[in-house]
Amino acid sequence: MSEHCATVHWQRRDGDDFAAGRYSRWHEWRFDGGAIVAGSPSPHVVPAPWSDAHAVDPEEAFVAAIASCHMLWFLSIAAERGWVVDAYEDEAVGTMGRIAPGRQAVTDVVLRPRIGFGGAAQPDAAQVDALHQAAHERCFIANSVKTRIRVEMRA
After folding, report:
1. Model pTM score
2. How many domains does the chain have?
3. Tens-place pLDDT, residues 108-153
4. Are residues 45 and 93 in the same domain?
5. What is the CATH number of the domain that holds 48?
6. Contact of 116 with 85, CB cutoff 8 Å
7. Do both 73 and 44 map to the same domain?
């Protein structure tokens, strides 16, 4: 088993009226390898100036984590099966939905990869679909969530 850690840091700023909800939600995600990512709620959830549209919101990070995990497994399985992947780009989209009164969740994530294969042998559509199915089954993040995850290939 392994552990994966992140530090989330937020600090109230001078002049913020915390009790009135007039405070910045901007924060940092710090990772053990040294990466620091600016975080904020989505401006769809918390309006500016209390959010920062340039920062990564938790919902975007969730979608990116699913897409990244799926891609990494796809690449690994493709290599195991003898396919050569030259490029992989995914324009993943997560959709928020109401799951109960006053409760929302990312209920649907659509992975929309465009994949370039190299080498003499090229997989057909069924073989690519099988690679995606295997990647989905192995993806740690997909195995950790209730969200429906679909793959829709882009040309």
Report:
1. 0.93
2. 2
3. 999 999 999 998 989 999 999 999 999 999 999 999 999 999 999 9
4. no
5. 3.30.300.20
6. yes
7. no
